[in-house]
Amino acid sequence: MNFPNLVPFDTFVGRLLRLPLRLIPNGTCIPVLSGPNRGHRFIKGAGTNGYWFGSAEREHQTLAMKHIGPGQIVYDIGANVGLHTLLFSRLVGEQGRVFAFEPAPDTAALLAEHVRLNRKTNVTIIQKAIAGHAGEMRFSASVDSRIRRFDVGGETTVLSVTLDQMVRDLPPPACIKMDIEGAEVEALQGAAECFQRYRPKLFLATHDTDGPCCALLRSWGYNIEFFAGPDLLALPN
User: Fold this and answer.
1) Homologous superfamily of domain range 57-236
2) What CA–CA distances, in Å, run from 122 to 40, 42, 170, 198?
3) Rg of the chain on CA atoms, in Å
4) C-alpha span between 27 and 160 (Å, rounded)
5) In sequence order, what are the beta bridge partners of 214?
6) 215 exposed, middle or buried (CB, 10 Å; 0-12, 13-18, 19+)?
């Protein structure tokens, strides 16, 4: 039975069902109760209660299950604490690989701990930001790890690299998930070779950059489908 879909979070019953999770201390390791990530373990406080209840970004996870399969290479760009990384690891299996990119040091540490807790031997964490150029960039480390982003006034310096540079050193991806809080256009501009040569599928959170992102992807011969509001799935012709 799929409780997150049967009982929406914003209803009284939904809030009541989730209340016990609020009473669990931060730092506690909790198994995911439902959905594609069911059974994976997350650290309480590393994300919303939806991470453990199984309701967080359910539409994204359901779509990933349709397009990612055993033996594939997946790049999780903007992996955060690993909500999607763990699912991708499960979907590609022992013969596949997941490369998880997360530049923020404390967030990358939580990602690494989730990979360790769930014994994911097919996941490689790369503590770099995918951007339009290689070098160092200022980064804003918001209290909410889900909305950290490039910011010239940011308090943290992170290493950046282009996707085209990475595919020269890593196995090319069959699928890419990118969620980098408004830096999508620049990241795609540094990925022309990757997309034109290897033709990966792309799950993209656009953050109001859908116009230029769509124009660039269509120029490379991609069809675009929107889901979950402004997020999109780009598939090669």
Assistant:
1) Vaccinia Virus protein VP39 (3.40.50.150)
2) 15, 18, 14, 21
3) 17
4) 30
5) none
6) exposed
Secondary structure (DSSP) of 30-53: EE--SSTTTT-EEETTSS-THHHH
Tens-digit pLDDT profile for residues 60-106: 999 999 999 999 999 999 999 999 999 999 999 999 999 999 998 98
Closest to 63 in 3D by CA, of 147, 175, 163: 175
Domain ranges across the chain = 1-56, 57-236
Flag whether pLDDT at 209 surpasses 50: yes
Structure confidence by residue, pLDDT tens digits, 182-207: 889 999 999 999 999 999 999 999 98
Structure tokens given for 135: 């070098």
Q: Which residues contact residue 16 at a Cβ distance below 8 angstroms, ignoring those fewer than 6 apart?
A: none
From the centroid of its chain, how far is CA 87?
Answer: 10
Split at pLDDT 50, 70, 90, the class of 145 is very low
